[in-house]
Design goal:
Blueprint (H helix, E strand, L loop, with lengths): L2 H10 L5 H51 L8 E6 L2 E11 L5 E9 L8 E8 L2
Antiparallel strand pairs: 1-2, 2-3, 3-4
Length: 127
Amino acid sequence: MNVKNSFQTCRTQRGFTLIEVMVALVIAALALTALTRGLGQYVFQQSQLQERVIATWVAENRLLELQRLPGAQMESRAQETALSQDWQTEFTTSDTLIDGIQKVEVAVTAPAEKQPTVRLYSILGGG
């Protein structure tokens, strides 16, 4: 075995260089950053979805109250508690082209929000 072959064998068997390790760490950091950002967006979307589902339940409950008690005087604005959150509800009615049938809109606003989270529409009357 000559000196040249011995040197090449040692050179091919050594570990990673510092540059290779740094590049691998940068790639891993970028991948973890992207993963963290994706998880953050997922959590945000899930909380938004949960808020909309709860607001829909509150609006449906309000519509059922209106349908169960036709002609009863109900406050057009009310505050309801669902799943430990206070929700502002507001309903408006308007006449339709058919006598005795009214269109009703129920708007539910989440706590600390200015715009309604959910709006549901239905009809009342005809009975």
